[in-house]
Amino acid sequence: MKVNNSRLNWIYGLLAFSAILGSCQQPGEDLTDRKRRENEAEIDQYIKQNNLTATKTEQGIYFIQTKSAPTGQAPQTGDEVRYHYITRRLDGVIVDSSDIAGSNPATVILAESNTTGITLGQYAGVLKLRQGEEGSVLVPAYLDGGRIGTLLLPQYSPVRYDLRIVSVRTEEQRILDYISANKLTVTTKTDDGLRVIKTLSQPADSMAITTGKTVTLNYTGKRLNGTTFDASTAGTFQVKIGEKRVVPGFENGLATLRAGEKATLIFPSSLGYGVTGTGSGTNRILPYTPLLFEITIVKVE
């Protein structure tokens, strides 16, 4: 499988800079250099002792593929990857894992520097594997995101991640999956990926929503996993069409409706919060996240 080395080089370029900053907090640069050499020696010894066939990437991690699925979907920036992992020290002690027994994989949206919820070592491993494949990466500590360290996994310890890719889904695939799973009938689909599902229609003589109109509405904003990130207070949210004060998918969806109608709007991140996302905490919208809005049009004037 061909891996996008430019993305990996970019990631590890950031890591190299982080390592320089981190080393300023150590007793001296010699400590950092020594730990790197020790990590390399530990990993080399581990590979030999376990008779592993490992490929060293140009970034400095070691990749071992244990199950191949050549026709599986390869992950790209913007994709959602569901995966299982086991984190081990090189002495075999398990430090962390996904919920393998409960068949509840970890989920990550690949967004390069804006990616959250995954270590850099895991990220590098995920990029090497297709859907259905399994493998491991052996990662020197300085290439794992400048970890602080814990009792189970000290700061300068190399680490092994065993990975199994459960699914790889683009934004478009995730939207189609949602529509299919919920047996929705799309009323309108635009070339830029907006879907409108009308759940209550009104006659043609009802007030249409056009540029310059002020729309009073109720809405609930959700992610495709069903979690709510925002909601209006009944009858208090207003939008003037054309002022572009809301994300394009929301405004463009409203422009397909009339007074008194109800609809569900579904659109990709290109019509939402793009490659950076927005918000924080429970309201956080991650990069490359499709959005869903349940809309009730109260008044158009």
TrEMBL record:
Task: List the GO molecular function terms.
Answer: peptidyl-prolyl cis-trans isomerase activity
Q: SUPFAM superfamilies this protein is in?
A: FKBP-like
UniProt keyword Isomerase, yes or no? yes
Pfam families annotated for this entry? FKBP_C
Keywords of this protein's UniProt record, alphabetized? Isomerase, Rotamase
Q: Which domain of life is it from?
A: Bacteria
- Leader sequence residues: none
> Matching PANTHER family, A to Z?
39 KDA FK506-BINDING NUCLEAR PROTEIN, FKBP-TYPE PEPTIDYL-PROLYL CIS-TRANS ISOMERASE FKPA
Protein name per UniProt: Peptidyl-prolyl cis-trans isomerase
Phylogenetic classification of the source organism: Bacteria, Pseudomonadati, Bacteroidota, Cytophagia, Cytophagales
